[in-house]
Each structure stands twice: as structure tokens, then as C-alpha cells.
Inverse folding.
């Protein structure tokens, strides 16, 4: 589908035979990051006791993410707050910018979400081993399980742990792609059914746009909160 | 929703030529994967550094400032409240004292006045009594005096009457004796 196509913008950049050209995907990553930076710049520029609108929103985001982390991962996760905040903001703004007509949705590409998920997976695993040493492997052996079931449960736990990056990345990618595809399909209906029959799919399209904005926020939230949960497993070994 | 979805699928199937030019999923085309990964890492790292180094500390400072300010203000408010309560207590105490003082002064002055009045009254009564005894004495004196003068008058009258009736002039001392006798007998009737 055309809206997901990646194409090169500007000259071709090749480093050691790898094509690293600036594409429309890169452009929208930069746009999203710039929007975030502008938003946070104006949100933290004036240090008012009684905040103005943009400052209030920036502070709401801050307290929202801070509360999310302290609720799911506790106080030990505080050092990772900047990362999770950046991650949440980046995914959220990429999703939201992607909702604009003629724009490109960075997060609708599996490679982007997979790299983020893999980074989180590797980082969380390293943090777990640093904090707990080889005891971190006990995450695969839940306590209170009958000995007979233990081999089976351990295998299942290992599989579920290893599938974390896949589930995390595919969830975001599939949601974004499916939403945009739905919008595209309904848009196609409006065009092909014309003035007479196009009103129904058009109203669906409007409703779906609202739903997609919700999904864009929700998936960013889910992505961030799952990261928090994985981090929680690594920091506080519960099993 | 399900029938709608099947409708969508059917429609997509019949209009497949509409998408023929852009069929397939560009996401699975590895041509720009390296580029996307590279730019993602670059952009996200930049974003992460700028957020964690500049913006988050600023927002945190601002939030902390506000919290501190609110805490401080609340503390001050509590302090002032306590102070005002204390002042109110002091004021009430002063008021109570003043009231006590007033009643004390009132009582004392009343006592003094009462005493003064009693004293004056006593004095006046004493004076009146003195006056009364004095007057009584005077009256008694006057009475005594009047008795002698009455006797004299009676003697003269008696002498004159006797002289007129009998033409004799009686001895004055006899008359006096007689009058005295009579008056002594009858004086109780008039006094």
C-alpha cells in the first residue's frame, strides 16, 4: 500500500555498502522528535507557579509517566524514567503524526518497532543479570508450582520470555498498520461508491479516525507500560 | 462488525486491481531496513539525550518548586492561623481581666459610697438627735420659766382681785404661799 512505502529523499548515503539514505520514514522520525522537543521546550520554558496551558500539558505527561512507572515497577525504576518517558513520547508522537493525512506512520513498520522492542528486551535482560546475577534465571522457575509440572512450566516461561520482543513489536506495528489500512479501505469505498452510496463509509471513516487516535494513544501507553512491567521483573525478582 | 468486515474483504477482492500497483506489504521489503534502523537509533538517541539532559530536569524542578511553594504557603498559613488564635486568646484574656477589673472597681466604689452615705446619715442623725435634746431642754427650761412667771402673774392677779373685792391689802408672802400651794396641786393638769 502506498502510504506504507518507504522512499528515498535526497542523495543516497551508503556506508560500507549499506544503504542508509534519508527516507520519508527518517523524515517523519525527525518531525516527531522535533515536535516533542518543541512541545517540551515551550512546556518548560517559563517556570510559572500557576502553569499556562502548554506547561500544564507537559507537566501532565511528566506526572502521567512518573506515576505509571512507580505504579508498575516501583521506586527502583526511577533511574529509567527518562528512557521510558522518551520512549512513550516518541511512540505517541509518531503514532499521532501518522494520523495526519499524507503523513507517514513510523511505527507502522515492523523493523522500527522490532528494534525498539529488541533494545528493551536486551537492556532488561542485562539489567536483570547485573542486579541479580545468575539468580535472575529463577524468573523461569515460578515458585509454588508442583515439581511434576516444573519442566513444562519452565519451558513455557522461557518461550514467553523470548517472545517478548516479538509480541511487543508486533502489537504496536500491527495495530498501527491495521488501523491505517482500515481507514484506507473505507476511504476507497467512499471514492468507489460515489456521491450516492459513499456517505455510510464516510461516516465510518470519521468514526474510525476517532478510534485510531484513541488506539494511537493506547498503543503508546501499552508499549511504555509493558516496558515498565519487563523492567519490574528485572528489578524486583518476584517469583 | 463481522458482516462489515466480510463486506470489506469481498470489496477488496473485487477491486484488487485498484491496489495492484501497490500490492504487498512494503514493511516486509528489507531494502530500507538498515536505513530505518540507523535513523531510528540516531533520532531516538538524540531525543533521549535532549529530554533527559534538558527538559526533564527543568520540568522536575518546576514541579518541585511548586510543591515546595505550596507546602511553604500551607505551613505559613498554619503558622499565621496559630498566631491569630493565640492573639485571640490573649485578647479574650485581656477582655476578661478588664471585665473583672470593672466589676471590682464597681464593687469598691459602691462600698465606699455606701460607707460614705452611712457615715453622713449617722452624722446627720446624731445632729438631729442633738438638736432634739437641745430643743427639748429649751422647752423644759421655757416650761419652768413659764411656771414661775405664771405664779408671779397669778400672785399679782390674786392680790389685785383680793384688793378690789375686800379693799384690804394682803400680805404678799401669804398670797404667794397660797398660789404656790394651788399651782403645785394643779400644775400636773397643765403640764
Amino acid at each position: 500500500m502506498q502510504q506504507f512505502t518507504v522512499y528515498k529523499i535526497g542523495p543516497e548515503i551508503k556506508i560500507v555498502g549499506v544503504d542508509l539514505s534519508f527516507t520519508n520514514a527518517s523524515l517523519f522520525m525527525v518531525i516527531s522528535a522535533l515536535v516533542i522537543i518543541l512541545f517540551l521546550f515551550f512546556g518548560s520554558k517559563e517556570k510559572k507557579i500557576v502553569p499556562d496551558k502548554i506547561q500544564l500539558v507537559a507537566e501532565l505527561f511528566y506526572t502521567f509517566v512518573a506515576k505509571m512507572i512507580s505504579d508498575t515497577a516501583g521506586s527502583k525504576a526511577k533511574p529509567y524514567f527518562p528512557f521510558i518517558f522518551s520512549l512513550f513520547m516518541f511512540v505517541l508522537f509518531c503514532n499521532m503524526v501518522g494520523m495526519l493525512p499524507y503523513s507517514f506512520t513510523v511505527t507502522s513498520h515492523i523493523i522500527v518497532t522490532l528494534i525498539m522492542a529488541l533494545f528493551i528486551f536486551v537492556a532488561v535482560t542485562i539489567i536483570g543479570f547485573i542486579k541479580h546475577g545468575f539468580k535472575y534465571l529463577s524468573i523461569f522457575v515460578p515458585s509454588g508450582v508442583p515439581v511434576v509440572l516444573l519442566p513444562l512450566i519452565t519451558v513455557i516461561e522461557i518461550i514467553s520470555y523470548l517472545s517478548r520482543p516479538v509480541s511487543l513489536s508486533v502489537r504496536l506495528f500491527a495495530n498501527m498498520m491495521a488501523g491505517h489500512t482500515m481507514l484506507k479501505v473505507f476511504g476507497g469505498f467512499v471514492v468507489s461508491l460515489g456521491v450516492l452510496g459513499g456517505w455510510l463509509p464516510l461516516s465510518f471513516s470519521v468514526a474510525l479516525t476517532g478510534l485510531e487516535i484513541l488506539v494511537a494513544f493506547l498503543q503508546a501507553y501499552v508499549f511504555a507500560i509493558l516496558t515498565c512491567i519487563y523492567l519490574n521483573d528485572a528489578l524486583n525478582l518476584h517469583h | 462488525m463481522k458482516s462489515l468486515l466480510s463486506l470489506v474483504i469481498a470489496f477488496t477482492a473485487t477491486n484488487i486491481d485498484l491496489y495492484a500497483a501497490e500490492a504487498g506489504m512494503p514493511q516486509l521489503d528489507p531494502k530500507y531496513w538498515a536505513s530505518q534502523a540507523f535513523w531510528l537509533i540516531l533520532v531516538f538517541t538524540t531525543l533521549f539525550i535532549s529530554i533527559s539532559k534538558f527538559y526533564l530536569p527543568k520540568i522536575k524542578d518546576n514541579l518541585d518548586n511548586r510543591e515546595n511553594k505550596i507546602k511553604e504557603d500551607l505551613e505559613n498559613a498554619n503558622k499565621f492561623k496559630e498566631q491569630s488564635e493565640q492573639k485571640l486568646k490573649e485578647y479574650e484574656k485581656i477582655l476578661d481581666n478588664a471585665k473583672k477589673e470593672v466589676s471590682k472597681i464597681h464593687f469598691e466604689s459602691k462600698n465606699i459610697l455606701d460607707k460614705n452615705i452611712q457615715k453622713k446619715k449617722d452624722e446627720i442623725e446624731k445632729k438631729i438627735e442633738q438638736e432634739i435634746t437641745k430643743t427639748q431642754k429649751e422647752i423644759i427650761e421655757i416650761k419652768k420659766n413659764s411656771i414661775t412667771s405664771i405664779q408671779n402673774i397669778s400672785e399679782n392677779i390674786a392680790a389685785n382681785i383680793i384688793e378690789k373685792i375686800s379693799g384690804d391689802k394682803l400680805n404678799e408672802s401669804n398670797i404667794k404661799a397660797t398660789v404656790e400651794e394651788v399651782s403645785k396641786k394643779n400644775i400636773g393638769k397643765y403640764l
In short: Chain A touches chain B through 54 residues (CB under 8 Å). Chain A has seven helices and two strands. Chain A has a mean pLDDT of 89.
